[in-house]
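Format is chain and fold; as here:
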Amino acid sequence: MKNLPAIPRNLGTADRILRAVGAVIIGFLWWRGIITGWPAVVLMMMAGGLLLNSLVGRCGLYAALGLSTCKIPAPKDSGKSSR
């Protein structure tokens, strides 16, 4: 089986924490009934995305824009294949 290339992280620790806190706040507002209806659905979907980003350490929008808040450099592809 071939080794798949690692997907580089592009979210730093502070960014990941802020996204997780934002997701928890949205979840709390929904749980308390402060946000309801279709805005709650949209915000809960956003919260799920924020939580997933914070757990994985990768943001697709950052990748598309070429941004990174992660201090660890992305691994370089050496062009060699391992067998």
